[in-house]
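Handoff note, outgoing to incoming analyst
You'll be picking up this chain. Sequence as last confirmed:
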Amino acid sequence: MPEMPRSHDLKAEPRTLARFIPRTVPPALRLPPEINRLDLLHQEGVEALLRELYTLLRDQGITCDVQPPDPAIAARQPIRTIDTILAEKHGTCLDLSLLFCAVCLAHDLVPLLIVLEGHAFVAVSTGRTLQQPHGEGIPAFERGMLTSFDALRDQVPRLYLPVECTGFAAGVGLDREYPEGRGRERRDGCMSFDRAVRAGEEYLDAHIVPAGATPGVAQRAFLYALDIVTLQDQYGFMPVGDTLPGDTRVYLDSAHAEGGGAASVCNQGAGEAAPSALPDADRLYQRSAHAEGGGDARVENQGGSGAPSRAKAHRTYIGSAHAEGGGSASVVNVPAPVSAARVEPATVLAVYAAPTGSAPLHWERDARALREALAPYPDRFRLDIVPLATPEDVQRALVQCRPRYLHLFAHGAVDGVLLDDGEGGRGWKLPYSLLAEMVRATPGLRCVLLSACDSAYAASATGSGEPYLIAMRGQVSDDAAIAFAGGFYEALAVREDTPIEAAFAQGLIRLRLIAPLYADVPLLATGWRG
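Most recent structure output, in case you need it:
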């Protein structure tokens, strides 16, 4: 059964729209095996690949909604998931733009989401890819977002190809005064790819005015453009449960086979070979053919033509693990001892919230510091970040991520922590008792760290054993919270079974070194009951 549309305030925190764009898509939205994505990119360029992706979406039989699903909602825009769009066969211009962004990401392309008053469309980089995400134009974006229409027009279409995303959907009833309402074919009510590109160019040429200006006839005000890859990779706006391309788990039964034919990755060694959440078209196969537990690994490609390329991976391979040009390739590793079996990293779920009207929390700085503290231990920790979180976001993330550690950065009080309300308001207080109930319902959660002032009131009901609670007695500065977290996680990284009490002691030592005035603020409690 399709999910109900999720709602989002397009103006309260624009960058969180990146959290609605996954990097994996259903099989129906993947190019068929006979179309070689890399050949298209290398031989014909981004436009040729976009044309194929656009055609793939046009074949889905989707209809564009003239109005959002609930026109009575003015401030908040309902947003459908990809599965819901495919099941219901319709979506708003924003739904379709987010869908197009996801399909681009799943095929290694870098999209911009362009949001206007009453409309949205996409522009795709002609020079950047997920494998090479840096390039000209990025400095114009402030933390992944651009609000200057002049700066956008300087880059599109010079660096980005604009695409009107309602074009791949039937657009009956769209206003013909705007570009999305013109040039549709009678056969299915959709635009050709060339017309969709031209419609995007028409918007930039004549149908957009800068923010604050009064729109004329058939014009819309520019709100912002979002660099989705930068927001997800650098600022933590990944969908809950998604992983970044740096994930290095083992592939099983990969359908990559870009040269055509059959492809498989087999792990016959002693180690664990968990399925990867990486996009199946990641050309590097980062360590995927390495058979990390030991034994033999093989990637075979029996179709296509051309010379096999050299492997590009974290370790040295014999021959090519990719075999994208055709033929077969294999990697043989000396079997590893059974004791070398791979242990999945422990997930640290970092949740941030600072509602409108509350004292600002520099969550991006905290997230960066936490990421840097965990980065030296990729085999021990995986970091999932939920910025600007609502209570529903916390509950959903606990269910989907099943973390070992929950680290919550927010404002605390006697009776709870203050989270976002999802509507740009003054927030929603999550009672400690309800947070504790969420924690108890999360299997394997070992410790909750509340980097929130006065959160020690949460320790009113405790027992013994896990889950542990680390909370704050009184005020705590950002620097103090970061210092404690660094010492705490570094101690756990030595051995995952390091006692929480020992890691807590190391956090206090780090705190005394960097912010001694706060050395008595952290509190450790066992068996948290709320």
